[in-house]
Amino acid sequence: MEKYLLTVKEVIEYTGIGQNRIYELIKKGDIKAVKVGRYNRIHRLELEKFLDEAVREGIQL
Question: Pfam families recorded for this chain (predicted)?
Answer without folding.
Answer: HTH_17
